[in-house]
Design goal:
heterotrimer; A mainly alpha (about 550); B mainly alpha (about 230); C mainly alpha (about 100); A: Cytochrome C Oxidase, Chain A; globular; B: about 230 residues; mainly alpha; about 75% helix
């Protein structure tokens, strides 16, 4: 359907409905809150990226000649804390989840718009609190805060950083709570669960993890703070405490947390793959069910981070088996995406380039995950660069590529403008090449024994490290290019049509950008999802 | 679609209906689910400390049993009764809201605040006793003596007190927040914000208050009663 | 949803539950002083669970709540069980291999 009665410059949409800083900082419109998140996570990504640059700078040479050891420790802690808690976890849910979920289900907003705004403020305040700690010298414990170092011996702003993460954790909880309630209670008439876009299924599964997992790290960080301030001994061996208990409590959240980071990415990929194959997704029910299965199973595998911690070998065996099992639903998704592309009418535009990059790199990273789930092998590569490479393949090769793919795909809807296709493809390739050059060598040096979190390393690893640093420079450039052309497009980009991709989904049935209330009348859904084959995607619904 | 507009105009939206909800039942359903999901996070929040408790109690059984006997069981039991009573008055407040009896709402809310305050007062007395007897973990901790044998307890009695203060402290913090929420409810009730058609905040604060009661229902036996059979 | 239930419910159930809760409190205090061996803890926990169920089902109207709400509550209990049981299983099985000092 199209109601292009007014030209985009005359039409009132959520961006120009009101002006002024207050109208943005006090907004309850989920679309504006998504933009606020976009700005926030980009800011913290830049800080984490700066820390990464410093790490790679130090690792150009085998000697620890750029930074002292403790300073280097503070830098990689900053990188981890900023990236994990203030970029990856809030990222896709905060930006794409917030923007799209109400649109995709035909609702006017999320269930609790004011809580939504509060969640952004909690994210911002938490991030700024942690940033304050960084600026004043930072913390050198690693983002994992292992005790008793973090509780007894570390000098630095452990409590402040922990408080920042604690506050941001509530942001994550509120986001998940909002999404779960929205999806349960605000779907448009006819939008049954089996007609829900797979993006929403992925965000639903993410919400489950956010609700059940985040409180545990919250209490764990509180206990760490209590130990530092009141000299309690919950994790301190000198008082009878067990550092491994800290690890149990920490990883009970932090393993599912990595699924908070990947499930939204997979949710995006499901949308991209079907839109750019112009085919209904293969195995809709399996993809939906696998998202929920991942959410549940993810809570049962945390001990695979603790194989060498002194944890019982028998517990380790069970965690190992369960870690193999949790890979199965992820594999199911990869098979289904591939089957969707097969014999599809594939169009290699930028969002699909990112999706293809995701499928390849996530699969590769995931396979190395299976290697790490193998207890015996993990004992060999634990705390080496093999681990670092594994999780960067998933988080950077996976999540960040999916995030960029989604950002490109929905950019016309978000901004009402088209990004320049040529430069977007260039940057996609630069990112892909830069990424692999950065992280593939890390698998090799890790397997050969180079430990992580060290500012110096044996001479024989230098060549691979130089390659990695070179790759990181290229990757960095690759990230800057979209930043430039997205901003450029907002001013000078071509106006976007309501549905520039000809895709299915309720979000494409509203103008680009949408009006504040999303839909003038509540849509009624009658068709199956991803109904490409009958040519109905241009048809009005409702 | 035009009918929908006419329909909506004919039945002016009730003031309590937020614009993004279709109708009041949908809003209520969402509010209720949201509140229960929040309580789920609280279960896991306290749950982390219960995990630590289980691990350390099984490891340091004698120390924990001995240290537990040093808690004042009379005050603990009275507090349990006080909290149960406050749950009753809270449930009555919610009922009063559901039938629109404004005076009763306020009365029961005040009673709940009163009982909650008694609980907090008794907690303060207990904490003060601990401070006076050097049973607070940290640099000033002095290993206490067993009630029965008057031998010094194992060193890990300090761990018991660490958990005692963390768990009851977090619980007390939730009570204080609860009292604040109840006060806010009284203000709103006096301003006629509630009716049988809309009393969601009362309902939700009720859920919160009952949850805090449930936490204490588990804290009491685990902290106060575990060693009494050795006496 | 819970509000519909409380319209028709006379508060009598609340007083009965209150009395039961006070009774169980007295019971658990009494049971704590009895020498039940390994059963002291299970008895105390069973009483606590009973009390918690009374509060949840009646005071919190869980009995008349939608199935989704009950599922949500059950999930929280299950997840807490995951956390405690799996963590404890580490400690309990450490001694199975003689290499770990205890």
């Amino acid at each position: 359907m199209s109601t292009p009665t007014a030209t985009p410059s005359q039409r009132v949409d959520y961006l120009n409905a009101s002006y002024g800083v207050k109208s943005w900082l006090l907004t309850t419109d989920h679309k504006r809150i998504a933009i606020l998140y976009l700005i926030g996570i980009t800011f913290f990504f830049a800080i984490g990226g700066l820390a990464a640059a410093l790490i790679r700078l130090e690792l150009l040479t085998p000697a620890g000649d750029v930074f002292q050891a403790e300073m280097y420790n503070r830098i990689f802690t900053t990188h981890g804390v900023m990236m994990v808690f203030f970029f990856m976890i809030p990222g896709i849910p905060g930006v794409l989840g917030n923007f799209l979920i109400p649109l995709m289900i035909g609702a006017k907003d999320v269930a609790f718009p004011r809580l939504n705004l509060l969640s952004w403020y909690l994210f911002a305040i938490g991030g700024l609190t942690a940033l304050w700690a960084v600026v004043h010298g930072g913390v050198d414990t690693g983002w994992t805060f292992y005790t008793p170092y973090s509780t007894v011996y570390a000098n630095g702003w452990v409590v402040v950083t922990a408080v920042g993460i604690f506050i941001s954790g509530f942001s994550s909880i509120l986001t998940g709570l909002n999404f779960l309630v929205t999806l349960h209670t605000m779907r448009a008439p006819g939008m049954t669960w089996m007609r829900l876009p797979l993006f929403c299924w992925g965000m639903y599964a993410t919400g489950i993890i956010q609700i059940l997992g985040t409180p545990v790290i919250a209490i764990t960080l509180l206990l760490v703070a209590a130990e530092r301030i009141f000299h309690l001994g919950v994790f301190d061996p000198a008082q009878g405490g067990d550092p491994v208990l800290f690890q149990h409590l920490f990883w009970f959240y932090s393993h599912p947390a990595v699924y908070i980071m990947i499930l939204p990415a997979m949710a995006v990929i499901s949308e991209l793959v079907t839109a750019f194959s112009r085919k209904p997704i293969f195995g809709y029910k399996f993809i939906a069910a696998s998202s929920v299965a991942i959410a549940v199973l993810s809570f049962l595998v945390w001990g695979h981070h603790m194989f060498v911690s002194g944890q019982s070998v028998y517990a380790g065996l069970v965690f190992s088996i369960l870690s193999f099992m949790v890979a199965i639903p992820s594999a199911i998704k990869v098979f289904n995406w591939t089957a969707t592309l097969y014999k599809g009418s594939v169009s290699y535009q930028t969002p699909l380039l990112y999706a293809l990059g995701f499928i390849g790199l996530f699969t590769f990273g995931g396979l190395t995950g299976l290697m790490l789930a193998t207890l015996g092998l993990d004992v060999h590569v634990h705390d080496t660069y093999f681990i670092v490479a594994h999780f960067h393949y998933i988080m950077v090769g996976g999540t960040i590529m999916a995030y960029l793919g989604g950002l490109h795909y929905w950019w016309p809807k978000i901004s009402g403008k088209l990004y320049p296709e040529y430069w977007s493809r260039v940057s996609a390739w630069v990112i892909f090449i830069g990424f692999n050059l950065t992280f593939f060598p890390q698998f090799i040096v890790g397997y050969l024994g180079m430990p992580r979190r060290y500012h110096a390393y044996p001479e024989e690893f230098q060549v691979l490290n130089v390659m990695s640093t070179a790759g990181a420079s290229i990757l960095g450039i690759g990230y800057v290019i979209p930043l430039i052309y997205f901003v450029y497009s907002m001013r000078y980009g071509k106006d976007a049509a309501d549905n520039p991709w000809g895709a299915t989904g309720l979000e494409w049935q509203t103008p680009s950008p949408p009006p504040t209330e999303n839909f003038p009348d509540t849509p009624v859904v009658t068709g199956r999802p991803y109904d490409y084959l009958t040519g109905r995607e241009e048809e009005a619904v409702g | 679609m035009a009918d929908a507009h006419a329909h909506a105009a004919a039945h002016a939206a009730p003031p309590e209906l937020r614009h993004h909800f279709v109708d009041l039942p949908a809003q209520r359903e969402a509010s209720s689910l949201g509140m229960w999901l929040f309580l789920v996070t609280e279960v896991l929040f306290f749950g982390g400390m219960f995990t630590a408790y289980v691990v350390y109690r099984s490891t340091y059984r004698r120390a924990f049993e001995g240290a537990s006997n040093l808690l004042d069981i009379k005050l603990g039991a009275i507090n349990t009764g006080v909290l149960i009573m406050s749950s009753l008055t809270m449930a009555m407040a919610v009922w009063a809201a559901s039938v629109g009896k404004k005076k009763l709402i306020i009365l029961f809310l005040l009673a709940t605040i009163g009982l909650g305050s008694v609980f907090l007062g008794i907690k303060y007395v207990e904490y003060k006793q601990k401070f006076d007897h050097h049973e607070v973990p940290g640099p000033h901790f002095v290993v206490p003596h067993d009630e029965n044998t008057h031998e010094p307890l194992p060193r890990q009695a300090e761990m018991f007190f660490s958990l005692y203060f963390c768990m009851t402290g977090l619980h007390a913090l939730h009570m204080i927040i609860g009292v604040g929420l109840l006060t806010w409810l009284i203000v709103k009730a006096r301003a006629d914000a509630f009716s049988p058609r809309y009393y969601t905040p009362v309902d939700n604060v009720g859920l919160y208050w009952h949850f805090v009661d449930i936490v204490w229902i588990f804290l009491f036996p685990l902290l106060y009663l575990l060693g009494r059979h050795t006496l | 949803m819970s509000q519909n239930g409380s319209h028709s419910r006379a508060p009598k159930a609340y007083f009965l539950v209150f009395a039961a809760l006070m009774f169980f409190t007295a019971l658990t205090v009494w049971a704590a002083f009895q020498h039940l061996g390994v059963w002291n803890t299970p008895v105390a926990l069973a009483i606590a669970v009973t009390k918690a169920l009374l509060v949840a089902l009646i005071f919190m109207h869980l009995k008349s709540s939608p199935r989704l709400t009950i599922l949500v509550v059950a999930a929280s209990v299950l997840w807490l069980a995951f956390l405690i049981v799996i963590t404890v299983s580490d400690y309990v099985t450490r001694a199975w291999l003689p290499i770990y000092p205890r």
